[in-house]
Amino acid sequence: MTHKAGYVNIIGKPNAGKSTIMNALTGEPVAIVTPKAQTTRHRILGVVNGPDHQIIYSDTPGIMEPGYMLHKLMMRSIDEAFEDADVLLVIQEAQDNHMKEEVVQKIKESGKPLLFLLNKIDLCAQELVAQRISHWEEIFPGSRIIPVSALHKFNLDLVEALILQALPLSPPYYDKDTLTDKPMRFFVSELIREKILIRFRKEIPYSVEVEVDEYKDTGDMVRIRATVFVERESQRKIMIGTQGKAIKGVGIDARKAIEKFIEQKVFLDLSIKVSKDWRNDERKLKRFGYQSDSSD
Q1: Does residue 178 form part of some domain?
Q2: How far is residue 23's CA from residue 17's CA, in Å, rounded to a whole number?
Q3: Which one of 74, 207, 269, 283 is at 20 to 30 Å from 166 when CA atoms are compared?
C-alpha cells in the first residue's frame, strides 16, 4: 500500500481565520480562536491520520510588522513554515485584496504547491468573490484559488481532497494516535489566554502571558495552578477587578473550557504577577516557550 504524508503549513494575516480553518480541518480545537488579531503566538501542529495518509497541519502566527521582540520571534516560525512545507495553505480574507510584495515573493520563491483560500466569503457578494478570484489568479498563476467559509465549513472537503493529491509519498512522521506536538499544559495555558482575550479590551490581552505551574491528575479531578503575567501594576489591578470579580470570571470561563477539552473535572487556581516588559526580554520569552535568537 502506498502512503502519503507531509506538512501543510497555514500562513496568512491576523484575523484571516487561520485557526478556525485549522480546527475544522483537524476536527480538534488545537488552536484557540478569538475575534482579536494576534491570537496565535506559537506554531501549532495538528495531525490527521487516515489508513493511507498523514496530514500534518501547522498553524502559524499571523503575518505582521514586529513591534516587540515577541513579534520578531513569532515571525521566525513563519520563515520555518516556508522552509519545511510540503504544501502551502495561504489564507486571505475575501474582502482583502492586498498582500505585501515581499510575502508574495516568498510564496512564489518557495516553489511549494500552493492552495490559496479566500475565506469569509459568506460576508461578501458573489460578484466581489469572483473579482477576488481573478485578482489572485493573476498574482499566483497556475495555483488553485478556492473560495471557502471556515465558519460554515464550505469547500473545506475540497481543500482536504486537493491537499491529499499534493502530498508526497512518505511513511508517517508521527505515531498514528498522535493529535498534536504540544503537551497538555500548553493547551491549558492557551485556553486561559483565550478567555482573557475575549473578556478584556485594548492593550491588556496583548500584554498577557500564561504559565501553568502545576497540572496534577488526582483521579477524580485535575488540579491546575497557573500564573497570568502582565507588564504593569495597573494591568494587574484591572485584571483582578473590583473585589476580584474580573479574574474570578476568567477563572470560571477557563475552567469550563478546560473541563470540556480534557473531559474531566477541574480545579483551577489563577494568580496574577507583574513581569515588566516581558515582550522585549529574551530571557523571559525563552521561559515562556518562544524560540530565542541565541539558538542560531
Answers
A1: no
A2: 10
A3: 74
Residues 20 and 99 in one domain: yes
Contact predicate 89/117, CB 8 Å: yes
Asked whether the beta carbons of 93 and 122 are under 8 A apart, the reply is no
Q: Bridge-partner residues for 4, per DSSP?
A: 53, 169
- Residue 179 within a domain: no
pLDDT at 275: 94
pTM of the model: 0.79
Q: Are residues 94 and 142 in the same domain?
A: yes
Grid coordinates of 176: 498514528
Report CA dihedral (276, 274, 206, 291) to the nearest 10 degrees: 60
Q: At what angle do helices 156-166 and 18-26 cross, to 10 degrees?
A: 80
Its domain, for residue 207, covers 184-295
| CA distance to 35, 160, 233, per residue, from 287 (Å) | 27, 36, 21
Q: Is 42 among the domain residues?
A: yes
pLDDT (tens digit per residue) in 15-64: 888 888 988 999 887 876 655 555 666 778 899 999 999 999 988 776 66
Give how many domains the chain has, as a whole number: 2
3-state secondary structure 147-196: ECECCCCECHHHHHHHHHHHCCECCCCCCCCCCECCCHHHHHHHHHHHHH
* DSSP codes, 91-119: EEETT-----HHHHHHHHHH---EEEEEE
Domain shared by 33 and 157, yes or no: yes
**Cell matching residue 180:** 498534536
State the Cα–Cα distance between residues 280 and 167, nearest whole angstrom.
39
CATH of the domain at 117: 3.40.50.300
> Would 177 be classed as within a structural domain?
no
Q: Is the pLDDT of residue 95 over 70?
A: yes
Q: What span, in angstroms and rounded, lies between the C-alpha atoms of 199 and 247?
A: 10
Same domain, 26 and 151: yes
Going by pLDDT thresholds of 50, 70 and 90, the confidence category of residue 295 is very low
